[in-house]
Amino acid sequence: MNIxxxxxxxxxxxxxxxxxxxxxxxxxxxxxxxxxARNIFGPVFINSGTRCPFHNRMVGGExxxxxxxxxxxxxxxxxxxxxxxxxxxxxxSGGLGVYPSRGFIHIDAGxxxxxxxx
Length: 118
Ligand SMILES: [Zn+2]
Description:
The strands form two sheets. Strands 3-4-6-5-7 form a five-stranded mixed β-sheet, with helices on one face. The protein has a two-stranded antiparallel ribbon with strand order 1-2. It is built from three helices and seven strands; from the N terminus they run ββαβαβαβββ. The model has no long low-confidence stretch (mean pLDDT 97). It has one domain (4-116): Muramoyl-pentapeptide Carboxypeptidase, domain 2 (2-Layer Sandwich), CATH 3.30.1380. Strand 5 (95-99) and strand 6 (104-108) form a beta hairpin. The chain is globular, with a radius of gyration of 13 Å. Helices cover 23% and strands 24% of the residues. Zinc ion is lined by residues 16, 18, 20, 22, 52, 54-55.
Protein backbone atom coordinates (compact mmCIF):
# COMPACT_ATOMS: atom_id res chain seq x y z
CA MET A 1 0.00 0.00 0.00
CA ASN A 2 1.25 3.44 -0.90
CA ILE A 3 0.33 6.30 1.40
CA UNK A 4 0.90 10.01 0.84
CA UNK A 5 3.10 11.50 3.54
CA UNK A 6 3.44 14.99 2.09
CA UNK A 7 2.18 16.50 -1.19
CA UNK A 8 5.23 15.22 -3.04
CA UNK A 9 6.33 12.24 -0.96
CA UNK A 10 4.79 8.82 -0.49
CA UNK A 11 5.68 5.77 1.54
CA UNK A 12 7.07 3.78 -1.41
CA UNK A 13 9.92 6.27 -1.84
CA UNK A 14 11.21 5.49 1.64
CA UNK A 15 10.89 1.71 1.54
CA UNK A 16 13.97 -0.44 1.99
CA UNK A 17 15.63 -0.97 -1.39
CA UNK A 18 16.53 -4.60 -0.80
CA UNK A 19 13.01 -5.63 -1.72
CA UNK A 20 11.96 -6.56 1.82
CA UNK A 21 9.34 -3.82 1.82
CA UNK A 22 10.27 -2.47 5.23
CA UNK A 23 9.01 1.05 5.82
CA UNK A 24 9.37 3.08 8.98
CA UNK A 25 7.65 6.45 8.93
CA UNK A 26 10.22 9.26 8.93
CA UNK A 27 9.94 11.82 11.75
CA UNK A 28 7.67 14.74 10.87
CA UNK A 29 10.44 17.39 10.91
CA UNK A 30 12.36 15.34 8.34
CA UNK A 31 9.32 15.11 6.08
CA UNK A 32 8.71 18.83 6.51
CA UNK A 33 12.28 19.64 5.54
CA UNK A 34 12.12 17.39 2.47
CA UNK A 35 8.87 18.94 1.32
CA UNK A 36 10.23 22.45 1.89
CA ALA A 37 13.31 21.58 -0.19
CA ARG A 38 11.10 20.16 -2.90
CA ASN A 39 9.03 23.35 -2.97
CA ILE A 40 12.16 25.36 -3.65
CA PHE A 41 14.35 23.11 -5.78
CA GLY A 42 11.91 20.87 -7.60
CA PRO A 43 11.80 17.05 -7.50
CA VAL A 44 13.80 15.51 -4.68
CA PHE A 45 14.68 11.83 -5.13
CA ILE A 46 15.02 9.60 -2.09
CA ASN A 47 17.95 7.31 -2.87
CA SER A 48 17.74 5.63 0.50
CA GLY A 49 15.22 5.97 3.30
CA THR A 50 14.43 3.06 5.61
CA ARG A 51 17.01 0.25 5.60
CA CYS A 52 16.59 -3.18 7.13
CA PRO A 53 19.75 -4.47 8.89
CA PHE A 54 20.55 -6.74 5.93
CA HIS A 55 20.37 -3.94 3.39
CA ASN A 56 22.29 -1.57 5.65
CA ARG A 57 25.16 -4.06 5.76
CA MET A 58 24.98 -4.58 1.99
CA VAL A 59 25.45 -0.89 1.28
CA GLY A 60 28.13 -0.45 3.93
CA GLY A 61 26.00 1.65 6.24
CA GLU A 62 27.11 2.51 9.72
CA UNK A 63 26.25 0.00 12.42
CA UNK A 64 23.90 2.42 14.13
CA UNK A 65 22.77 4.21 10.98
CA UNK A 66 19.71 6.42 11.34
CA UNK A 67 18.42 4.68 8.21
CA UNK A 68 17.74 1.62 10.40
CA UNK A 69 15.21 3.74 12.32
CA UNK A 70 13.68 5.26 9.20
CA UNK A 71 15.02 8.58 10.43
CA UNK A 72 17.33 9.38 7.53
CA UNK A 73 17.14 10.12 3.84
CA UNK A 74 19.85 10.23 1.18
CA UNK A 75 18.63 12.62 -1.47
CA UNK A 76 19.49 13.75 -4.97
CA UNK A 77 18.04 16.85 -6.59
CA UNK A 78 18.54 16.69 -10.36
CA UNK A 79 19.99 19.84 -11.88
CA UNK A 80 20.87 21.47 -8.57
CA UNK A 81 24.49 21.52 -7.31
CA UNK A 82 25.06 19.56 -4.13
CA UNK A 83 26.61 22.67 -2.58
CA UNK A 84 23.36 24.58 -3.08
CA UNK A 85 21.30 21.87 -1.42
CA UNK A 86 23.80 21.58 1.41
CA UNK A 87 23.78 25.34 1.92
CA UNK A 88 20.00 25.35 2.14
CA UNK A 89 20.10 22.62 4.83
CA UNK A 90 22.78 24.44 6.84
CA UNK A 91 20.36 25.30 9.63
CA UNK A 92 18.96 21.77 9.87
CA SER A 93 18.74 20.67 13.50
CA GLY A 94 19.76 17.05 12.89
CA GLY A 95 22.50 15.29 10.98
CA LEU A 96 23.73 16.52 7.61
CA GLY A 97 26.19 14.62 5.44
CA VAL A 98 27.43 16.08 2.17
CA TYR A 99 28.86 13.85 -0.57
CA PRO A 100 29.51 15.90 -3.73
CA SER A 101 31.52 13.25 -5.57
CA ARG A 102 28.76 10.71 -4.99
CA GLY A 103 26.06 13.20 -5.85
CA PHE A 104 23.88 13.16 -2.76
CA ILE A 105 23.33 14.56 0.68
CA HIS A 106 22.21 12.68 3.76
CA ILE A 107 19.88 14.25 6.27
CA ASP A 108 18.67 12.61 9.45
CA ALA A 109 16.69 13.40 12.56
CA GLY A 110 19.48 12.40 14.93
CA UNK A 111 21.69 14.76 16.92
CA UNK A 112 22.94 17.93 15.25
CA UNK A 113 26.20 17.02 13.51
CA UNK A 114 27.97 17.54 10.20
CA UNK A 115 29.93 14.98 8.21
CA UNK A 116 30.70 13.76 4.72
CA UNK A 117 33.41 14.45 2.17
CA UNK A 118 35.84 17.22 2.93
ZN1 LIG B 1 15.45 -4.64 3.38
